[in-house]
Amino acid sequence: xxxxxxxxxxxxxxxxxxxxxxxxxxxxxxxxxxxxxxxxxxxxxxxxxxxxxxxxxxxxxxxxxxxxxxxxxxxxxxxxxxxxxxxxxxxxxxxxxxxxxxxxxxxxxxxxxxx
Length: 115
Known about the structure:
This protein is an alpha/beta fold. It has one domain (3-103): Rossmann fold, CATH 3.40.50. It has helices spanning 14-27, 67-75, 93-96, and strands spanning 3-9, 32-38, 56-59, 80-83, 101-103. It is globular, with a radius of gyration of 14 Å. The model has no long low-confidence stretch (mean pLDDT 90).
């Protein structure tokens, strides 16, 4: 039986969707089924309900992961917050501690940022 991972992808732009859908098809794990639901809205206390039923939320630098958002994510069963940024100052680390794992981009490519 395949393990199923559902990802709620917030603050999604068309280029995000294009790249992630393409990469997901290329990876095609035999024992894992990954689905991504793309949302244009940022993750906030008003939109956190969209994450219900997902194990993972993927957010960007402008999403504010506050104590209230974390509590609602935790109650919804979210296990991982994946940041599409190197910084993590948009996450309330005290509130998330021992509740939800957080991962981030370790660094940016020096070739990816305009000089």
